[in-house]
Amino acid sequence: MAALAGVAASPGLGIGTVMVIAEPCLAYEAVEVTDAEAEKSRLHGAIEAFSALTREKAEVVRERVGDAEAAILEGHVLMISDPFMVAEMDNLIDGGQCAEAALDTVCETFAVMFEAADDDLTRQRAADVRDIKSGVLCQLLGVREVDVSRVPRGTVLVTHDLVPSMTAGLDRDNVVGIVTETGGMTSHSAILARALEIPAVLAVPDAVRKLPEGAQVIVDGGEGTVAVAPDEAELAAARVRQEALRREKEALQRFVGKKTVTADGCQVELFGNIGSVEDARAVVDNDGEGVGLFRTEFLFMDGGAMPTEEEQFRAYQQAALIMKGRPVIIRTLDIGGDKDIPYLGLEKEDNPFMGFRAIRYCLAREDVFRTQLRALLRASAFGDVRIMVPLVTGVEELRQVRALIRRYADEFSREGVACNKDVPVGVMIETPAAALMADALAAEADFFSIGTNDLTGYTMAVDRGNDRVRYLYSAFNPAVLRSIRSVIAAGTAAGIPVGMCGEAAADPLLIPLWISFGLTEYSVGPASILATRAAIAGWRHEEARALAEAVMGAVTPDAVFDLLKAAAR
């Protein structure tokens, strides 16, 4: 049985027949226009038609899946309706470009901007922009969009990219698996596949060519493999695994509404990571106990101009109201040379990961930072809002942020505006400097949150996007684990909460280590909340400490992994 490998994007096992979904031809001739007003009218009409169709799709998704997933499509309408984007297209048309070319140019500018980001979640937004572009091009060219609503039962969809606009018509009773050539864990196609509970394997190279129409396949969304033409014995084994997975899923339901506790009764907090207000609803839907990381850069990257204080306030306020008094940890703007937002005037840098980004940028641009901090302070009157500072390297940065917060809180006091003047302020521990100075930072911070993604990269001096050195990027590396252990120890000694918001927080192999180290808060993707709660419930501290003692004596990532794998539950 041949097998293809990709990204394990949506767990489950699907057995079915391949249906290849071809993308529509959207080729156009970039003619020069002479009647700019007529061409702009044609563009605006196409945008309106696209928006109306997308709203209809969003309602279908809302009924079939939920509000958070519908909001993905509603976000497409907001983005293409952004006055800055439309104005840029109009300017290009005034310069002689046709509507198709103007749309293409502006959308690609935004897509490239997203792709330059250093985190997967932001990079995946490029796919959304291109989905929008394709939808409007369909309207301009009179091309019918792909319709997957009438596929037969037992279908495995195979396509270059399953974009959100396609998913509105997906019927989970008929579609048993999804395979794409692009996308990742944080792409909206993955999010929607997980919400629909359809097994999905993404980023399978050349999948459209290698998986012929009508072929029988097994899609393993947990392992990230696609088995082609399985024999009877292999099909029987897959069906046995399907039943086992069904039982495991049912077992997770017993953790709904329960506190997150270890097997010996020690309670911790289990939060969700979000990038938008809509994601906060997904945290609630998945029984999260709060928001451990609200990435605010999306508010800045989804439009053509800096969001106003009022716009930011509304977003933070809505997240706080949705969580109904549960903690909402909001990270201040984490933007820099690697996330090129045209209107912020950022200069290109040779080494943006170590350049003018995150808190360095914010402290240098008080006009930008003041707007955000004031919005955050106003939102703090509506819930348990906490402010988290990214890329901290020393106590002086934390002190500067606290001084600004005090100043703006005093302004609100004089203006009679409600806010929590004692809003908790914490730091992300994601640089070796912060990890080494954790004791000093703990004396002045209200909480820590360990960002394992960047901490791993910076500790190992590895660009995880570089294929030649990616093998060094691993949270199982003893250097990374020793750093995390010392950070948690420093926070515990100072009596402050220590959380983790990187991908490692949800890794069931690593969870016994976090328990033994004394981690008090886990923040994971909304879809991973129940599985993480179950994994935490499977360990007693005595058992976790014994395993950690053996693991921390290992000196290679492979040895660490083998020990944790052997003890997995």
Automatic annotation (TrEMBL):
Keywords: Cytoplasm, Kinase, Magnesium, Metal-binding, Phosphotransferase system, Pyruvate, Sugar transport, Transferase, Transport
GO biological process terms on file: phosphoenolpyruvate-dependent sugar phosphotransferase system
Stored SUPFAM superfamilies: Enzyme I of the PEP:sugar phosphotransferase system HPr-binding (sub)domain, Phosphoenolpyruvate/pyruvate domain, Phosphohistidine domain
EC number, UniProt record: 2.7.3.9
Domain (Phosphotransferase system enzyme I N-terminal): residue spans on this chain: 6-125
Catalytic activity reported: L-histidyl-[protein] + phosphoenolpyruvate = N(pros)-phospho-L-histidyl-[protein] + pyruvate
Record's subcellular location: Cytoplasm
Domain PEP-utilising enzyme mobile: 152-224
Cofactors required: Mg(2+)
The protein's name: Phosphoenolpyruvate-protein phosphotransferase
GO cellular component: cytoplasm
PROSITE patterns according to UniProt: PEP_ENZYMES_PHOS_SITE
Sites where the protein binds Mg(2+): 430, 454
Organism whose genome encodes this protein: Adlercreutzia caecimuris B7
The keyword Magnesium is annotated on this UniProt entry: yes
Catalytic site: 188 (tele-phosphohistidine intermediate), 501 (proton donor)
Record GO terms (molecular function): kinase activity; metal ion binding; phosphoenolpyruvate-protein phosphotransferase activity
